[in-house]
Amino acid sequence: MLSNNKLESKTEQLSIINQFSSSLLQITQLDELFDYVTSQVVSRLGFVDCVIYLADEQGKFLEEVASMGVAHQSNDYKVAQTRIPIEQGITGHVARTRRAFVSGDVSVEPMYIADSRPALSEICVPLVYEETLLGVIDCEHPQRDYFTEGHLQILSTVAHLLSAKINQVKTLNNLTKTIEQLNQAQQLEQCLLKIANITYRSLDLEAFYDELYQIINSQLPAENFFIGLYDRYSDILEIDYLIENQVKCNAHQRVTKAQIKHTASYFTLTSGKPLLCNTREFERHIELGNFQMVGQSPKSWLGVPFAVNEQYQGVIVIQSYTQDKAFNHHHLSILTYISRQVSMAIDRQLSRQALEHRALHDELTGLANRYLLLERVKHAILSLDRDDDDNSHCLLYLDFDRFKSINDALGHDVGDHFLVAIVNKIKDCIRRTDTFARLGGDEFAIFIENVKDNEQVSLALERINEAIAKPLYIDGHILQASTSIGVAFTDNATDNAITLLQQADAAMYEAKSRGRGQVCYFNNAMRKKLKRQADIENDLQHGIKNNEFELYFQPIFALNDPHVVSFEALVRWHHPKNGLVPPNDFIVIAEQTGQIIELDLHLLKLAAQQLKSWRQEGSPMIRITVNVSSRHFASLDFVTYMQQLYIDYQLPNGALCLEITESGLIENLKLATKIIQGLEPLGVKLYLDDFGTGYSALGYLHQLPIHVLKLDKSFVDQLTHKENPLVDAILSLARSLDLKVVAEGIENPKQWALLKRKGCQFGQGFMVSKPLPAKEAMQFLIDNTQMTLSI
């Protein structure tokens, strides 16, 4: 059974559709087909209830033909309503409108007809083929809001294929009757069946056309034959398959509207009707101005148009230039049938290609995505075992420098256009056999196979840097690109694709730390660092479960009237093997792996527990601030978690507050603001940590509902030797926005005096106290104040 998350995978959708399409080849009876859909296909989607209804010949009723489901405690499931008037219920509505219907709560749907089985969610899609209603697929589920957009997409695809299969089976049945009635040769029947089979069996259109033509040529005078696919959006006809005088010619010729608009093929396409002509009739159409003579006049001409989808329509044409090979209405019937099979084959191929492309490529740039990159890396690494040459493969990891500032300053549209422009420049610098992939955001990778020597990679790097060195003109802005590049090699068939990507990533971060536009090759020092990071990543989860993390508390104090006003909670990890691990050694890794979410929630809980413990001991009430990742400000679930902490540990309003870095809030300013506002009833104050080390938040600061700025230690350090005008500017900015300021890293009286004189209200640093364990921190508070501190 698929979970909702699993269903969202385009690769899983494609797997279901491909398996379903392949299985259709083996099914020739409608009963078997319907049973297969309900018992095998729909059940893979995780549905517990599915009914297939077909419309009767008069289109007045929907009649049940197959079902799957569970009713109450009984496994003996029967559909309560096997025949539904088309005017009634949700199924009737879908049948009449021929549009899919999804409801997360059918109890509020006036169209819903109650059944004996419990249901809250319902999804219903029509079975339609060439604008003809065949029936509906109706699925229900006892959970509210069960069905997702992914369910709708894949069920609609199943319905599309099922409709085509139903139509095929019915068409074959009708055709068999026609053949029997007309006493046609058994050979024709076999040929038509072959065409139907290859329509579903062939995964490659070229191979499908080859097989198709061999069958057609055995039944029709098809010495001159072509299949054209017309793109309505671009007004271009692509000749997909071409036979001239029984010789296969170069296909995939692209013909513009100006070139084809006077042809009989274009007339057939635009009229949407088949055209059967002898020489006289062909000339009559020319006289009427329907088309013009292009090339040699045919003795007989037959063309059949067919629809594919909203964008494409096609035409099949056969022409004869000899009097003894003329076409008749029997040939028209055959070619009409063939056109339908071609339509289904092309539509299926286009659908498959679209699904594959979306699953394996980046939507913005059209480049390979992470999954496709890793698959190609895996395949290439395995080939090293079979390659006698002394080759290796190389992975370049690119991160565009200061791309985020372009997004922040000029908007995401400009940023997107900037990325696309850079990608197009880099494409011209690499081989067509190289895999260029977008990994996410402004991070890209280029996989270079079969590298002979390092010089080959060096030349590629030079070409890339030269290509992006020139300024780009994007939406009226002159922008300069540069990229930090990490390089890693693999030459052993036992290597791992993920490991290679991690190595190139580590080299890229090393390059980025050296400045803009740098290149760095992965080395042993980085290998050791990666190993240590991997060990920490594995140990983090155990550390949370085994309660190995402890909070230390550093006092925040008033500068004018010296007394402690709050504590900042700082985490320490008591690693069972490595001893006390400082946060700098694991917080970054937790951020990279996503483990920071669980760790933050654990630390917030520890802080709440400590506040409750101090309160029960009768200690003075004090505020604690906890550093949290910006990832929490992307989901309203964080508000719910904080609310529950305040309830579970009976915290006074404002007792537990948050610190976050300045870049974290502006990634989704609207949602972050909503989350902060959701915390206001709890009295939660938001401290903006490390303020001044970046610049991105300055443009948004007035929009953020924050309360306190924390002046970064790097500014305070300079005050020991000289004045820093940036400190004055930040303090002035804070006053204008009515914000408090905490200066971090105060280590001597001169810093204290200067900050106090400049109007900074609060400080934090070793001059007063280093971070202390909970018991020592509370004793420090008691020893250094004679008042119960109000928060």
Features:
Alpha-Beta Plaits, seven-stranded antiparallel sheet, 4 domains, Beta-Lactamase, alpha+beta, 791 residues
How would you describe the overall organization of this protein?
Residues 533-785 form the EAL domain. Residues 391-524 form the GGDEF domain. This is Bifunctional diguanylate cyclase/phosphodiesterase. The chain is α+β, with helices and mostly antiparallel strands. The protein folds into four domains: 1-173, 2-Layer Sandwich (Beta-Lactamase), CATH 3.30.450.40; 202-358, GAF domain (Beta-Lactamase); 365-522, 2-Layer Sandwich (Alpha-Beta Plaits), CATH 3.30.70; 534-782, EAL domain (TIM Barrel). It is 43% helix and 23% strand. The strands form five sheets. The chain has an eight-stranded mixed barrel, surrounded by five helices. A hairpin with a 2-residue loop joins strand 15 and strand 16 (443-451). Helix 3 packs antiparallel against helix 5, helix 6 runs parallel beside helix 11 (329-360) and helix 20 runs parallel beside helix 21 (669-679). It is elongated and about 115 Å long.
